[in-house]
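Rotation project, supervised by the postdoc (A.L.). Task for the rotation student: set up a whole-complex structure prediction and record inputs and outputs verbatim in this book. Inputs entered:
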Amino acid sequence: MRQVRFRDPRVEMAHGAGGKASRRLIDGLFAPILFGSSTEPLGDAAHVSINGTRVAITTDSFVVRPLRFPGGSIGELAVNGTVNDLAVSGARAEALVTSYVLEAGLETEILEAEIRAMAAAAERAGVSIAGGDTKVVEHGKADGMYITTAGVGRVIPELKISPARVEAGDQVILSGPIGDHGITILLARGDLEIEADLKSDTRSVLPFVEALARAAGDGVHWMRDPTRGGVATSLNELALDCRLAVITAEEKIPVRDAVRGACELLGLDPLHIANEGQFLAVVAADCAAAALAALHETPGGECATIIGEIEAQPAGAVVVKTLYGGSRIIDMLVGDPLPRIC
Amino acid sequence: MQYVDEFRRPELISRTTEEIRRLADPDRHYRFMEVCGGHTHAIYRFGLKHLLPPNIELVHGPGCPVCVLPMGRIDDGLSMAEHPEVIFTAFGDMMRVPGTQGSPLAYKARGMDVRIVYSPADALKMAIANPDRHVMFFAIGFETTAPSTALTLKRAREQGVKNFSVFSNHVTIIPAIRAILDSPDMRLDAFIGPGHVSTVIGCRPYEWIARNEHKPIAVAGFEPLDILQAVVMVLRQLNRGEAKVENQYNRVVPWEGNRAALKAMAEVFELRPYFEWRGLGFISQSALRLRNEYAEWDAERRFSVPGIRVTDPKAAQCGEVLKGVLQPAQCKLFGKECTPEHPIGALMVSSEGSCAAYYTFEHRQAAVGVS
Amino acid sequence: MELVPGEQPLALVEVLGVRRRVDLGLLEETDPGRLGDWVLIHVGFAMSKISEHYALEQIELLEALGETEAAALEVRGYGLEPGDTNLEKAQDRSGP
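Outputs recorded:
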């Protein structure tokens, strides 16, 4: 068993933000104890063999305030999030199970709405909800409700995803504009008194993954869905796991005007903001054009674009090149993205 | 974005950098100091240092109000959060700054009511919405932010809101610049003036820098073209042997400043006889406190604070970095004991602190060999 | 910018489709905010109005960089002093 390296005396909000602090908690406390001697890099889902069949399994919990927001609700996130984790690991979700922790005092109307939202999302995503569990905790805990989903799926045979397969020259594809979900949530909380016509981008990315599989097959080397911590965090994980450099061009990264405006106003970087319906794919150079075309032909994939490529140096780093020749390294999120004032 | 994209046009940027190259004397090493956290941030965000010739050095001065706040004052503010009826409010920049017992976020994790606000007006609104609680606003910032705090306090008084107070850590920029220029290690050729502070104080307060110290100063905006044009301006002055105040940011900064803002500040605040600046020591007449008429809204008077001076570890060289004497990487603790994840000095905590900016943008680049 | 009725001088300000209520209390009484104005916002307060005139002037100056140099080279070629061109005068931004 590896040594526990996590030295923080207490758990803090930053540990859940998806950035460096989260990684320290997982790598330093969970992994050494739970994953024993495994040296596999941690991915979005685990692939296990059961009597020779490769099966993917994953779980995720959903904690969001407010429960409903423009573009979706916690129920939809719970379904799409797990379907997506399976999808970007190269698997087609077959069934989900779900568990609810409910706060005493939650109105039944709200609960019913979420259950319906989950059912609808599952149907849209083509996955069945096979079962679940419920617990109720005292009023004041659980922010209304927490939902956990676990999903199991079949590995898509054409795809062979692994950081080890990523090589210099590979192209980095981003499915669409970033920051929509995180900013929508931030604004929906109402503390900041800012309004914008934005909605969460929550959706299943499985159709896009399947399109990629058909068009590029084993030319797809790596995928991830940039949720908490944003694109910056996912690309940093890639750079660290494959020990290569991810070089991107700022003007190629799609960001909606309203997200850009809100980020400028608040001093946030869209690259660190959570997304719930986007994905990153690293594809061999000779399949990139076909991959992109396949995405453009899939409904909802019209905005997919190549944002950069893999190079040998500077190993382990993610570089963003600005429009006028400057460049900077972007890091993983350190704690929570805090609005900057000055 | 109107008024933003125009000032980021690549072809204008290359024209301006060409002009800089043309103007800079290759046998001379220039050191220009900027004294605004926003400039530090913009310079790194837009990679401006890479666009300048190697003999022009941009030095970061004490323009980050979070960075110059002594730890003891953070402790004082947080001690108020320990009262159960208090809601501690502050800007996002403050949330991760550590006091001796942890940062505001750490206090929040321990169960105290700590909330981010985007504006002092939000804090006042919170007080009105929560009459059974007391909202304390931890105010920081230079003259850019002080008028907003002042106006909010005026409104609190006018509306008779009793459950609201402000812990003022507002500081003024001119004494800081004076302290830099008085420092014996100082080797600066010119200043890039703080654009947002100047929208309030105008350009006149800088005239002594030009007159008495013979240093050119160009008050600059925050887009790449603004900062580069300011460099052009000071280079031109240096080449002609001139030293005067120029207003590069004249589309926003009025030469005489904002009278309404200054008036609000004068009504609510007065200068403290002295105030401790982290890294720079005690500077007289450099910080603001609430006047007696506003005593009811002065958190320092409503709450008794420990008022303990907390000195930085001797090894931390924040002061020298603040004065531009040392580059962040030259501090012995930089990148080792002191990193953004576990900062020792405030220059590493605030995202505008020169050490944090240097670490995020430069240090890793240097380590991994990016030009 | 849209003015919102109420006691405090508040306005609805929009940037790239993002709307926020902003306090106009710090703008000069002699030159209050009007619909269509662009303002610099800091911590929820409008600090200053943005002058379109100066912004355009600045862009023009920057566009002329390089061209001035080319023009100056040409002029030197004729044996004349580049000296005080109109451009240099317009760029003199010291003093009110």
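Student's summary: Residues 163-329 of chain A form a domain with the Phosphoribosyl-aminoimidazole Synthetase; Chain A, domain 2 fold (CATH 3.90.650.10).
Supervisor addendum: Chain A is about 30% helix and 25% strand.
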